[in-house]
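User: Some background: our group keeps a shared notebook of sequences we're curious about, and every so often someone picks one and asks for a predicted structure to add to the entry. Today it's my turn. The entry only has the sequence so far, pasted here. Could you supply the structure so I can complete it?
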Amino acid sequence: MTGSVSTDGRKLYVVEHLAGPPAGHYQVRQVNVATGVLEPGLVADKSNVSEAMAGWPLGQLRLPGGRVLTLYRGAEHPFIHALDTVQAFAVCTDLPSSGAEDAAAARDWGIADADGSSAFVVNPDLGLVLQVDPWSNRVVRSATVRPMVQSGFVLAKFSDGVGGRVAQRVLVAPDGRSLYAAGAGGVLAISTADLSAAGRWLEGRAVDGLALSKGGGRLFALLHDSGRIAVIDTAAGTVLGMVPGAGYTWLAAALPGE
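Assistant: Of course. Here's the predicted structure to add to the notebook entry:
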């Protein structure tokens, strides 16, 4: 989790990584912005103050009102660390898992939101789709779909870059009706109305990143094996072809004239 600033600009929240056990042990601290001094004490999980927080960050959302959600891969299951930067507390919400994750699939969780009222968490390689209320810290809906077929590639780390509607794992369409999730087995489209699978593209091919055009009509998928970028017509549900060039390593923005 990167540093987060409170809504009044007075506190900077930072993550301090600690030696295990447990593996992935971390704690959240506060820094006084005016003085640059680390405040005493910790930002604890108020739902379980005695349990050590441990995991590896996969994605993050910054919501209106000072709430920051960080998706973590835990030792046993993924979880969301919800940090309230106004009142200086955190709540960790455990997410269901398949119970049969391998190391590659465990990295393919992604998180996205449409308007700050819901967070969608998807793992296309496990076929798991979750909707989380970021304010009550509850999983309000979940669904299981047929997992994408994995190709066996080991995914490289992907940098989100800046600008545009881009993500490593999960994107929400501009109209909020669809989710797009990338992983080691391709791209999975999910209907937000009922969390059902609405489309599958590039099956069996590892995808390192996604970008949507401004209107949401074109989805761009970065292929791990070639560094090429596939163009998908989201309305027709077809792969239109490839962007010229190869060897790309990350997507910064999608800015076609539509």
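Suggested note for the entry: The mean pLDDT is 82. The radius of gyration is 19 Å.
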